Amino acid sequence: MSGKLVGKVAVITGASKGIGAQLAQRLAQEGAKIVVNYSSSDKPALEVVEKLGGSEHAIAVKADVSKQEDCSRLLKESVDKFGKIDILVLNAAILQMVPLEKVTPEDFDRFFSVNVKGPLFLTQVCLVDFQFTFRYINVIRRIVN
Fold it and tell me: What are the tens digits of pLDDT across the range 82-112?
């Protein structure tokens, strides 16, 4: 395999569908090993892993990025499989399209946990627990019409 990312390992949150799955495919085409993070059904994540060439080139790891312990486990499983992390793609996000006056405290807490705490905890674990030098990509979505 050839490409700019041969020998690199990329962890992509929210990689079982949509933008995350497309990013996984692109980085794999450039030679990276891929960790496909998902938070609910494993079926789409396992399909992405198969499209990327199977368990030699990619793994699927279930983790809720709003939970610090899941962030730690996601990164530990990544390192256990591939030995390092070179690229961290912060793609997982939630968005509820509800009128502002109908947003509940629970809605806000979940939104904040996934969209703000998740990227913070993942980056923190990479820096502190694993002391890796890595590049990160934070995927930003438009949240207003």
Answer: 999 999 999 998 887 888 899 999 999 998 9
Tokens describing residue 28 = 């794999």
Q: How many CA atoms lie within 13 A of 52 on its CB side?
A: 32
CB of 58 closer than 8 Å to CB of 78:
no
Helix then strand then coil, % of the chain, to nearest 5: 45, 15, 40
Q: How far apart are CA 95 and CA 99, in angstroms?
A: 12
- What is the model's pTM? 0.88
> Tokens standing for 23?
């990013």
Domain range spanning residue 29? Answer: 9-138
Residue 62 lies in a domain: yes
Task: Tell me, yes or no, whether 143 lies in a domain.
Answer: no
